[in-house]
Amino acid sequence: MGVIGLTDCRFFRSKYAKTVVLGCAVLALGACSSIRESRGFINDPVLTRSVQPGIDNLRSVEGTLGRPTFASQYGEPVWYYISSTTGRRPFVRPRIRNHSVLAVRFDEAGDVTSVDYSGIDDVVYLQPDGDKTPTLGRERSFLEDLFGNIGQVGTGAPGGGGPGGP
To answer: Would residue 151 be called left, alpha or beta, if left means φ above 0 and alpha means ψ between -120 and 50 degrees?
Structure first.
């Protein structure tokens, strides 16, 4: 009895097998495509250009652009509309493809004083320094944490609640 090769089998010579192989190849290629996600404010250039300083106020901006992504809590009143589009391949960290911030500034009466646009060039990327958060105080081991308070109860030390204590 000889060894039968894959091409000798009837299944691999049928049209059904070719369709299955082609379908698997298409699915495999589709899994490598980029995933795009839009986050935040949907930026419509026609609407954002229609907001004019000296003409619009709080109510007209809200009617045109909707509620802001966030508003300033202190200082001059500013509404921020943030839009971001990310793209990523499967199993890879997302990357920002497009990012824009529309800042609408108001005066005390609620009228628009300025409209500022900024993009991805103004984004600051922060890199954390190490895996640990620096803290004040001395470093203690696990055993020091576990057994460090033995003998401290009732000695009159701050927080000690011995007999007749606080």
So the answer is: left
**Pairing, β 70-71 against β 112-118:** unpaired
What pLDDT is attached to residue 85?
A: 87
Judged by DSSP in three states, 60 sits in: helix
Gap between the Cα atoms of 62 and 68, Å rounded: 8
In the beta sheet, which residues pair with residue 118? 101
- Total Cβ atoms within 10 A of residue 77: 16
Cα–Cα distance measured from residue 53 to residue 109, given in angstroms and rounded to the nearest whole number: 13
Q: pLDDT (tens digit, 9 = 90+) per residue, 119-155?
A: 888 877 777 777 777 777 777 788 888 887 787 766 5
First to last CA, the chain: 93
pLDDT digits (tens, 9 = 90+) for 62-106: 999 999 999 999 988 999 999 988 887 777 777 888 888 999 999
Pairing outcome for strands 112-118 and 78-88: unpaired
- 82 closest CA partner among 98, 105, 63, 62: 98
- For the whole model, what pTM was predicted? 0.56
Residue 121 to residue 28: CA distance in whole angstroms: 36
Q: Tally the residues of the chain.
A: 166
